């Protein structure tokens, strides 16, 4: 396994691999690798000749006052986990390597970036789209893997790839959860043990929403039930709970039979902002109104 820190070297290596006819699978990450990242790597390794991951805590996707500085950076641990997953190359650039003097180009994916997390994190998806575009130009993957854990990010990236005619294929990977249901995240390490308990309310609220939606409950009833579950926790503060169209991320007003929706939420547990979501399909052949 190689660790490459220079953009020019990574590009040369990628060119050579492509010339040799190797397919490149790519998993971009911010490091602090966990089972969620590893599941993406396993799939990418299976589906491609070469697996490249990137580890880069991208400053431009953090807002002022967010956790850029304290974000975990356990590189040696990440290196050994990557090695166990048979990663061929870790692309591990410095901030100055990625953003030279007077860096000034950004990608704005309109509409999708303004919804859900975009409201409380203005500029976040601009930072994400821009860095992912740069990484694609550097690593030159045939296929890139993203987790549904960051569902909005996935939609933004797919839209960017479509709109800019990028030649990379995007694969969506299911959310990996702890045995008790908590979605695995590098930020879970910020939680104290009582907060860790409270964090489970996100999953409980989503599971409850799923059963209500399947049976035909209204959007407003589902959301108030979810709020009720979250608000029981002493240190929980809801950023948003929304039921949206999985493609446009626009709020849905009604959930007709057979319709698929995304239930998404962001909740502060103490000083830690957690996100989670679930794709839910309402059963067919039922009416909301009992006649
Ligand atoms: P991050 O390091 O948080 O930027 O995440 C890198 C990639 O791993 C993104 O595509 C995430 O969506 C994905 N990811 C993070 N956590 C999980 C999880 N629990 N399950 C599946 N994918 C995940």
Overall description:
The protein is α/β, with parallel strands linked by helices and about 290 residues long. It folds into two domains: about 1-175, Rossmann fold, CATH 3.40.50.620; about 185-280, Pantoate-beta-alanine ligase, C-terminal domain (Pantoate--beta-alanine Ligase, Chain: A,domain 2), CATH 3.30.1300. About 35% of the residues lie in helices and about 20% in strands. The strands form two sheets. Strands 1-4-3-2-5-6 form a six-stranded parallel beta sheet, with helices on both faces. A three-stranded antiparallel beta sheet has the order 7-8-9, with helices on one face. Strand 5, helix 7 (about 150-165) and strand 6 (about 170-175) form a beta-alpha-beta unit. Helix 6 (about 125-140) packs across helix 7 (about 150-165) and helix 8 (about 195-215) runs antiparallel to helix 9. The radius of gyration is 20 Å and the shape is globular. The termini are far apart. Bound molecules: adenosine monophosphate (AMP). Adenosine monophosphate (AMP) binds near residues 37, 173, 175, 183 and 186.
Write out key terms for the chains shown.
single chain, 291 residues, alpha/beta, Pantoate--beta-alanine Ligase, Chain: A,domain 2, 37% helix, binds adenosine monophosphate
Tell me how many strands there are. Answer: 9
H and E order: EHEHEHEHHHEHEHHEEE
Structural class: alpha/beta
Structure ligands? adenosine monophosphate
Q: How much β-strand is present in the residues?
A: 15-25%
Strand line-up across the major sheet = 1-4-3-2-5-6
Shape: globular
Task: Provide the CATH topology of the largest domain.
Answer: Rossmann fold
Please name the fourth-level CATH homologous superfamily of the largest domain: HUPs
Number of helices: 9
The N- and C-terminal alpha carbons lie at a distance of 64 Å
Q: What is the total number of structural domains? A: 2
Largest sheet: 6 strands, parallel
CATH architectural grouping of the largest domain = 3-Layer(aba) Sandwich
């Amino acid at each position: 396994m190689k660790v490459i820190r220079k953009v020019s070297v990574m590009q040369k290596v990628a060119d050579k691999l492509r010339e040799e006819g190797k397919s490149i699978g790519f998993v971009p990450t911010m490091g602090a690798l966990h089972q969620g990242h590893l599941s993406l790597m396993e799939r990418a390794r299976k589906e491609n000749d070469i697996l490249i991951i990137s580890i880069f805590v991208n400053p431009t996707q953090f807002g002022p006052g967010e956790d850029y500085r304290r974000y975990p950076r356990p590189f040696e641990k990440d290196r050994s986990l990557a090695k166990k997953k048979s990663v061929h190359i870790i692309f591990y650039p410095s901030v100055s390597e990625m953003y030279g003097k007077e860096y000034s180009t950004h990608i704005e994916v309109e509409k999708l970036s303004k919804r859900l997390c975009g409201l409380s994190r203005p500029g976040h998806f601009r930072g994400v789209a821009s860095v992912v575009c740069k990484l694609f130009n550097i690593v030159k993957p045939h296929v890139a893997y993203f987790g549904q854990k960051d569902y909005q990010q996935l939609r933004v990236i797919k839209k960017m790839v479509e709109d800019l005619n990028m030649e990379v294929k995007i694969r969506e990977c299911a959310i990996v959860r702890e045995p008790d249901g908590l979605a695995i995240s590098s930020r879970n390490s910020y939680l104290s043990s009582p907060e860790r308990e409270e964090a489970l309310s996100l999953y409980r609220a989503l599971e409850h929403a799923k059963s209500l939606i399947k049976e035909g409950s209204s959007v407003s009833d589902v959301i108030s039930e979810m709020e009720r579950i979250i608000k029981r926790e002493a240190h929980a503060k809801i950023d948003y709970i929304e039921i949206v169209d999985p493609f446009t991320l626009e709020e849905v007003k009604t959930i007709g039979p057979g319709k698929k929706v995304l239930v998404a939420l962001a909740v502060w547990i103490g000083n830690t902002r957690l996100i989670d979501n679930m794709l839910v399909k309402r059963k067919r052949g039922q009416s909301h109104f009992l006649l």
